[in-house]
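Q: I have 522 residues here and want to know how they pack in 3D. Can you give me a structure?
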Amino acid sequence: MNLETWVFAVYLGGLLLIGYIFSKRAARSVDDFLLGGRSVGPAVTALTMQGTSMSGYMFMGGPALAFQQGWYALWYAFGDAGGAIINISVLGKRMRRLSERLGALSPVEYLGKRYESSLVQVIASVISIIFISVYVFAQFIAAGKALTSLTGMSYLPALLIGVGVIVLYTVFGGYLAVVWTDFVQAIIMVIGVVGITAAALTHLGGLTHLNASLSEVDPSYLSIWGKDLAYQGQWGVVLGAVLIYSIGYMGLPHVVVRHMSMKSPKTARTAILWSASWNQLFVFAPYILGLCAIVLLPNLSDPEMVIPELAYTFFPGILAAILLSAVMAAVMSTSDSLLMQAGTILSRDIYQRFIDQEADHARMVLVSRLLILLVGIIGVAVAAFEPPSVFDLVIFGFGVLGNSFIVPYVASVYSKKANRVGAVCSMVLGAVTHILWTEMDLESVTAVHPFIAGLILSLLGMVIGNFFGRAPSQQIQNEVEAAKRGRKVSRALDRNSSRELAPEARNIERHIRGLQPSSGSA
């Protein structure tokens, strides 16, 4: 075993240790296992959200797109730079309040309770499981490629080891293990990518010299329309590239669950600052490295290996191993969240709701763990065959999830009249439109990005469905209004709490009176 492999083995061991540390707390209750007891502070909330969002795509798919299309790829980065701010600002506080008021422990359960519909919950579960799985497959492929580059192993053993570690610490440690490993890995990611970018740009003499070199290779690399001006005048495609990451995170169940697990609604305010700062350091660098590779690695056979190749080009073995840990950090920080969310949906939204409604805490934690393990095993089986590129799978899975859920999530906290018919129409039309637009390559015919098409149809579905459907119950409307205003507890809960505390209050009052001197004493 070489030195680089030892470095990475220590890194993987550290992640397993985090999973072990949180394993006992995870077993205490379903709330602890699935949401960490809603105890996550602003810094950890922000970095787990960003670590989860910035998957293996950012270390493989993003650089590969820039390597192939030039500066056009930066449209995705421009949208990504503001994605966290929009996500937390729009959904953060309100979803945190409303999810707690409704007693929801998963984003899918939240939709079912908010729209008072089993059908909404079933459709949301099916869409989530299928396309979260697509997303998982992309991360597992990235894990296998990264570990192959790092250790020299063949793809299949590397895949099994990398994914095995992710599955183990997620199964045993639950949600808190996921968020704390994400926190550590988000720090590693930003240090690694900034270090490699600084070295590459220094070698090339800065951005000005990079652009001059790109112009010598092919002037169209400098165009905002892509190599050979492939997207010239196609503003519908460009707008989709910007919007998919600027607003798309609001539709990803494994990302919006971070709103539900925050310590309090006030956590969102500080989390925005953490997320925005981290994003500006990170999101542009992978694409710039793809541009650097056009000049530095002109004969690269696999564009998705840009960052591993540049790491070994500019750093000695042990430093390259440390920096390449950032690649695995990106893969793992998304994979664990996807697995956690898949297990949550299967256990909470399908098993407990439709199979065993009386399941106790211990059984639910066990079922969650077994289902996470099952999803991981299926993911390995699929990834072993190396389906399409990481970029293609991520954009597809991300787009379908976003088009399915952005409108229902946003409407759930901003419109008390949003109803179950609107939610169903929005989810189905958004998902089907994105799938058909991609599979039939309608982008090339219409010059409209699949994400834009799906978003428009999803919004129309919500508007039309709300018009024909019945308004939610008065109780749900009251809860939505209360979540907007930020009232901490409902009047009913306040009255119940007062009744329960009344005997203790009377005893304390008697005790205090007994300590006071009588009126006749000196």
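Q: Anything worth noting?
A: The CA atoms of residues 16 and 162 lie 12 Å apart. Confidence is low (pLDDT under 50) at residues 489-522.
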